[in-house]
């Protein structure tokens, strides 16, 4: 190599080092901005579903079903609160699971395979781990928006008596991420969708909603069925949301357990999804 | 060197590309070209071997290296959820470039790619050639030092290919380093200053297109057809004509300095081909000589 060429190369090296700084630091946020731009195309759906769904559920269950439950169950059946107050935190926690199962499934398959935008991103300075982080950031923010809307409606329904009721948004978020990051990791492993994701909806999400103390306390089940609730992130986030919403009485160690379990699950799924991304995009 | 399980997709490919040079990897599908490109693109990690891009090791400096590359992958991965111009804007942001600069470049590049009036169009409404040009425009959004093109014109009609070659040639003139893979010898001849012929993960030959033709082929090639059944039988009787001969299922290739003269000798021997054609030697002939196979099978 001639002298002139090697000098040119040294300046290229210096240029590269300088240009790598910003993407190294902010890459995940660039990915999140991309996700927001894509989400903009379905803002309508997000808002309508974000307000419509809570309304429908709060009316149907919190007011409709509640008239029967409250008339028949007696005062102490639900720890002294009305059915509306009992079910509202659970509905909020379930809404987070719904957002997670929308955002961490097909959009992930899309990015890896159907319209491989992740491959495009990985050819830019972005790293595979930043792609995963960016998606988690964007979904967290979308989830937060949905949960705040949901909480506002619960307040309008007069179903959030506690002073710290707003913290149920955090409980919902933790549940949504605990379930969502694992779901994202699973979606990332799929080379082809031959119905696996539909199966997840049918055989994981739906039973989880039914067996997580959402519509009635887990304690009505025999003990051999209650384990479904104990492993379900939704049960933990629902119980946590109840503690915040109306001071549901449970031992403090259990409350700490909810938080710890959800945090560990969310972190584990996140790490798993990152590892798959590194492997899959670096082939 | 890249291994997938027990299979070595790339095994001992070694080359050096100087700044401003236009370098090609020519080989059939499955030769290891794309894998090599992904390694050079600091995306795919090596199983073994040494690799330095812009003086940096891709294992440690992936983002830095990629900040200086433009990548045109074999299959378009434009974002179909976004509009044409948005694709450029979003991609530019991945490099951490300021929004205003990216917007300015996006407009320049849309013009360069002859897509000015398509800015607001949906990606899926573009033709294959337009998508390709948009992918190239996207690869240029960071003003890269090196442009990696993996089979840039595969699947395009002749007119679209020529438009694309024209654009690439302009980049070459501006001093952008081009590294491209192709299985079209005319593309390699058009765009590459220097190239390597790759097959089954290894390098078969290296040089300028003209050098390779000189070294591995003759000046001219005479193609004669005697009908599919008779070619191999007739070939035996053609011994001694030309420097060398290749018998393909559908035709016989006679390599020689003077194709017309060889044709005269064949007719004088009492053989009358159904069709005959004298042409200049191409990289296709080089490849055939080196591997015993043609490029596109």
Automatic annotation (TrEMBL), chain A:
Origin superkingdom: Bacteria
Topological category with respect to the lipid bilayer: Multi-pass membrane protein
Swiss-Prot/TrEMBL GO biological process terms: response to antibiotic
Oxidoreductase is among the record's keywords: no
ABC transmembrane type-2 domain span: 45-275
GO MF annotations in UniProt: ABC-type transporter activity
Transmembrane segment boundaries: 45-69, 81-100, 131-157, 163-187, 199-225, 252-273
Protein family according to the UniProt entry: Belongs to the ABC-2 integral membrane protein family.
Protein name: Transport permease protein
Upper lineage: Bacteria, Bacillati, Actinomycetota, Actinomycetes, Micrococcales
């Amino acid at each position: 190599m001639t002298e002139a060429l090697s000098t040119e190369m040294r300046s290229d090296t210096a240029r590269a080092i300088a240009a790598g700084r910003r993407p190294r630091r902010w890459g995940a946020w660039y990915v999140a901005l991309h996700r927001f731009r894509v989400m903009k195309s379905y803002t309508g759906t997000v808002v309508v579903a974000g307000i419509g769904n809570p309304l429908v559920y709060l009316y149907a269950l919190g007011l409709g079903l509640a008239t029967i439950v409250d008339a028949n169950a007696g005062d102490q059946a639900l720890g002294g609160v009305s059915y509306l107050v009992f079910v509202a935190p659970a509905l909020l926690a379930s809404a987070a699971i719904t957002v997670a199962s929308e955002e961490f499934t097909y959009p992930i398959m899309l990015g890896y395979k159907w319209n491989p935008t992740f491959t495009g991103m990985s050819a830019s300075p972005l790293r595979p781990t930043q792609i995963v982080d960016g998606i988690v950031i964007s979904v967290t923010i979308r989830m937060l928006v949905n949960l705040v809307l949901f909480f506002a409606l619960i307040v309008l329904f007069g179903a959030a008596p506690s002073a710290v009721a707003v913290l149920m948004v955090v409980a919902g978020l933790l549940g949504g991420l605990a379930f969502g990051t694992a779901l994202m990791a699973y979606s990332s492993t799929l080379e082809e969708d031959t119905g696996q994701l539909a199966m997840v909806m049918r055989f994981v999400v739906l039973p989880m909603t039914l067996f997580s103390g959402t519509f009635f306390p887990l304690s009505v089940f025999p003990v051999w069925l209650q384990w479904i609730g104990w492993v379900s992130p939704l049960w933990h986030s629902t119980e946590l949301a109840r503690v915040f919403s109306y001071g549901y009485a449970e031992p403090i160690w259990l409350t700490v357990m909810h938080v710890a379990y959800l945090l560990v699950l969310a972190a584990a799924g996140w790490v798993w999804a990152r590892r798959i991304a590194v492997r899959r995009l670096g082939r | 060197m890249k291994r997938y399980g027990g299979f070595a997709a790339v095994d001992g490919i070694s080359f050096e590309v100087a700044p401003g040079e236009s370098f090609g990897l020519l080989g059939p599908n499955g030769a290891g070209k794309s894998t090599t490109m992904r390694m050079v693109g600091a995306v795919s990690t090596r199983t073994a071997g040494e690799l330095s891009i812009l003086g940096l090791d891709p294992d440690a400096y992936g983002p830095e290296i990629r900040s200086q590359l433009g990548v045109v992958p074999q299959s378009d991965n434009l974002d179909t959820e976004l509009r044409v111009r948005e694709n450029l804007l979003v991609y530019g942001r991945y490099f951490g470039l300021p929004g205003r600069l990216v917007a300015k470049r996006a407009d320049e590049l849309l013009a360069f790619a002859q897509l000015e009036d398509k800015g607001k169009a949906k990606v899926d409404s573009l033709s294959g050639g337009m998508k390709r040009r948009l992918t190239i425009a996207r690869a240029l959004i960071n003003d890269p030092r090196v442009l990696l093109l993996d089979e840039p014109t595969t699947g395009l009609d002749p007119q679209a290919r020529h438009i694309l070659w024209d654009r690439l040639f302009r980049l070459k003139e501006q001093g952008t380093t081009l590294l491209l893979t192709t299985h079209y010898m005319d593309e390699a001849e058009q765009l590459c200053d220097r190239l390597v012929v790759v097959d089954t993960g290894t390098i078969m030959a290296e040089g300028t297109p003209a050098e390779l033709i000189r070294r591995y082929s003759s000046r001219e090639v005479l193609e004669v057809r005697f009908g599919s059944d008779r070619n191999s039988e007739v070939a035996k009787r053609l011994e001694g004509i030309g420097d060398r001969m290749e018998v393909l299922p559908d035709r016989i290739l006679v390599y020689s300095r003077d194709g017309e003269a060889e044709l005269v000798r064949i007719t004088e021997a009492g053989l009358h081909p159904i069709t005959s054609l004298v042409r200049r030697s191409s990289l296709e002939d080089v490849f055939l000589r080196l591997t015993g196979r043609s490029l596109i099978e």
